[in-house]
Amino acid sequence: MRAMDVTELLDGLNPPQREAVASPLNHQLVLAGAGSGKTRVLVHRIAWLMQIEHISPSSIMAVTFTNKAAKEMRSRVEELTGISPKHLWIGTFHSLAHRLLRTHWKQANLSENFQVMDSDDQLRLIKRIVRGLNIDEEVYQPKQAQWYINAQKDEGLRPQHIQPFGDQWAQTMVTIYSAYEEACQRAGLVDFAELLFRAHELWLNNPSLLTQYQQRFRYILVDEFQDTNTIQYAWLRVLAGNAIPVMAVGDDDQSIYGWRGARIENIQQFSKDFAGAQEIKLEQNYRSTGNILKAANSVIDNNPTRLGKNLWTEGDQGEPIALYAAFNEQDEARFIVDQVESHFKNNDRTYQDMAVLYRSNAQSRVLEEAFIRAGLPYRIYGGQRFYERLEIKNAMAYLRLLQNRHDDASLERVINVPARAIGEKTVETLRQYAREHGTSLWQALEQAIRKDLLAARATTALQKFESLIDEMEVTCQSIELHEQVDHVIQTSGLIEHHMKEKGEKAQARIENLEELVNAAKTFDPDDIEAVDENGEPVDVEYASPLAAFLDQAALDAGDAQADEFEDSVQMMTLHSAKGLEFPVVFMAGLEEGLFPHKMSADDPNRLEEERRLCYVGITRAMEKLYICYAESRRMYGQENFASPSRFIREIPHDTIEEVRLKATVSKPVSQQFSVESAQEATGLKIGQQVWHAKFGEGTVLDMEGQGAQARVQVSFDFDGTKWLVAAYANLRPMDL
Length: 736
Ligand SMILES: Nc1ncnc2c1ncn2[C@@H]1O[C@H](COP(=O)(O)OP(=O)(O)OP(=O)(O)O)[C@@H](O)[C@H]1O
Ligand SMILES: [Mg+2]
Fold this sequence. Notes:
CATH topology of the largest domain: Rossmann fold
Radius of gyration: 29 Å
Bound molecules: adenosine-5'-triphosphate, magnesium ion
CATH class of the largest domain: Alpha Beta
Largest sheet: 7 strands, parallel
CATH superfamily of the largest domain: P-loop containing nucleotide triphosphate hydrolases
Number of strands: 24
CATH architecture of the largest domain: 3-Layer(aba) Sandwich
Number of domains: 5
């Protein structure tokens, strides 16, 4: 063990941080903006408790937002103290609850070998229950029941606590909830929401056990406190009681999980419930440059309901924020790839210094493809790569079947997805037939129908499936590739199937499926790089565009993601970027409708949450921030002309520098508006002298677009050549 004194522990902390770390063992609420050292305070506080207060690691509980963050925290504590924090209780609410239930399964009224179910398992079980109860699945959709059950659990409600009165829908939901609960109990199954709920009940039903833990823990710390939900807060509250001091660390401006039940109000509640809590504000930001911070502050300032704080930095202004207006999503991806390459080549950055953040998972496909094409290593953090996602695999399986009926894996995958009454027993019969006769499953299916090997109901279901696939193939012969993909996801019922699911995940799945149509639209078989055995490029003749498309997708999917330790660019959604920091950050897709998301634009509360998400994004950047938007984007299955996100307009102009590269894409015909229409929109002519408030005098070189999209290229006498959106640039003609 390394000897360590007080000064060493407090070194590298500012006065309010020190106050938080070195204060007596009271309740504390550290409420502070992004990058102000909240997590750092939490880590130092743990070290302080161990080193100075001599509290054993096994008497300290720390709650983090991800298991990865817990791992990092553990190693930081070890680094600081030289003591192995192996026995520290550290993890997410879920992992800590799980640990408790494993130890006290009996008191929690669980079976010793209880199994944790993920959300797919949970849905499957609910489906079986709904069917078993003879409830109409169309009216009372299993996905909705799942959402309902989890929401009740998050609020701490068992079926007997709910009184639906006359409401038929709610009554049925309670019936399903009840039956589901019985089934779980019988089978020893526990879902994610149940982990938290059970752990809460464990305290309530076993006072002596609770006392035991209250005596054991001397201190509890919670990071990212603003995103706790009702049951998590209740669990913490009961455990702490009047016995254990709690340090809660958070930022109301970074509450981004309201849609999943998180309650910002828990922050105010904390001061009431944990009497005498010492409130500490941290205002100095150590993460970002002046420009980045100014942008973040000014965006979040537009939220009316804030607890209000200010962030400042002693650091430099730093470089301006680069704003890139891309022609479309392809151009955006190419721009990001170019910048990543140039940072890397100039030796100023490693790949892992750089992160690409986006609002919606579906955006990753185009970015991934651009990275793969450029041969740049990347990782998708906290998510799956596009072609590995469930809904995409389903759609691809249908397409593969059209191409090759004997692809057994694909057939197995989709024969009953969406559900079409082809049960496991029927499929097993087909498997058996195929095994015995050495045929493919498809052939087995044909034989089963022809030879009447199955019950009438099963045969009818199989017949329907057979003609569905056959019909798809016929239709697809006479339409374009992207229409084929669209036809397949529609007629297979996949879109509808996922539409029935509720919530953010369903939305993401639909978006991904539509994104697959876009992938087909922009697909060019000439992009496929095939090589012969000597590594020389060869031209491949494909039987059809679909065959080429499937090949490309298989290549993309098979291209192993850079492993965890390889130097690679991090790609992730804005949500999963919480708590992290990177020297260089790209925020992609800042367009109205995408970010803020179209689902949130009309609801003031949700819009505020989107803005907090933007604040989270901006504040991930330490030194250089790029913000990109595409003037046209194929998204949600169609091409949209979007206007730049309102969040861009909320960033002060003097922190931004617009980047305009020479056009590198050949624009689709639909975008090639004549200069005439641009002239009409801007009231300017090529060659005209103009004046701009910031850049001064210049000459109009070119223009494009129409209406609000019209842009003008101006060569400024002192500031070089720039493309400006006419509607914003406010160019004044000088030769009038
Ligand atoms: N007093 C300090 N001196 C130097 N660097 C500091 C100090 N406090 C924090 N930092 C550094 O500033 C960065 C941000 O700190 P940290 O991640 O703890 O902030 P945070 O408030 O938890 O941010 P977020 O809200 O994004 O979770 C880290 O790199 C951290 O090491
Ligand atoms: Mg933090």
